[in-house]
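Entry 12.
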Amino acid sequence: MRIYLDYNATTPPEPEVVEAVSRALADTYGNPSSVHAFGQQAKAGLDMARTEVARLIDADPSAVVFTSGGTEADNFALRGVADAARDPARRRIVTTGIEHEAVLNTLKALEREGWTVDVVPVGETGVLSPSTLQGHLTPDTALVSIMHANNEVGTIQPVADLAALAHERGALFHTDAVQSVGKIPVSVNELGVDLLSLSGHKFGGPKGTGALWIRRGVRLAAHLTGGRQERNRRAGTENVPALIGLGVAARLARAKLDHVAASIARLRDRLEEGILAAVPDAVVNGARDRRVPNTTNVSFPGIEAESLLIALDLEGIAVSTGSACSSGSLEPSHVLRAMGLPAPRTRNSLRFSLGSGTTAADVEHVIAVLPDLVAKLRRLTQAAALH
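Predicted 3D structure (tokens):
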């Protein structure tokens, strides 16, 4: 028996997506920039995909630029704004310490190029208050980049309020919505943002697909130069089969968004309640009232998270210690550190992220297996401390 509870790292592709990609690889092989029938067939596939992605985020298809995923979309947004900036008096970017590495490391690179980066604290809830952001917005702020939902603790930021404050100061607002699109309703119009990143493999689409939505009128330097693909924003022949799969995934996600989200939330709550009831001293990290419905991050005092992750994997249960992009790192979670949690909690916490394939039986099995594993590891840890 194998149980997959790492949907925030990646999701299994929907069967319809697999079929669509396979069919497109065989049949839709024309170059979408070609004017003949084969090319027009490929272009029609891209147009369909762009429309479905736009519908998922309540956007105009012409504002959607396809990318290879969330990391590229984040880079495109941040570097695109920086490279297009013309006002030497605006050279500050504001963000938080809980952002994905795709944002944080890109901003570190921009810092080395002369930009000022202001990292705003979020506190133990993992939610940034508008009043805190307001205190960090200055006349030289050019861009604010704050994620919609956090990949490790699942907390949802009040992006609409934060974006409004940024606009009052004349700054652009980018949100990394990789962990919210496909999980909760996302409308670029209701959020009021200028740039939004998403990734296909987080909601049942193929890996290597994503998009950046760009509000009309936003100045953004081209990400890749060459041909005229993606309205001169990103040169290079598009990955037509994978992007067709992205379009199918977006359509399926939009169709089942409400009822699937409610069902997953019930399973997540049951898992969380079962763990807290059966494991002494276990505690949930981050605000529990402002989260995407599939995510819980739990601290298990007295053990190292890596040991528990391995023990669960040996039982056929896949979970995570945090972002998949930091796998192999022995560093404590930068998200939990940025939330100001005590050092031990940054090292003893696991993320459980559920998805459409998660069942009630899966959840009950985890609740049954986990307490004994934690107890055993605590005994081993205590014994090692005595020697």
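Annotation: The domain at 3-9+256-386 is CATH 3.90.1150.10 (Aspartate Aminotransferase, domain 1). The mean pLDDT is 95.
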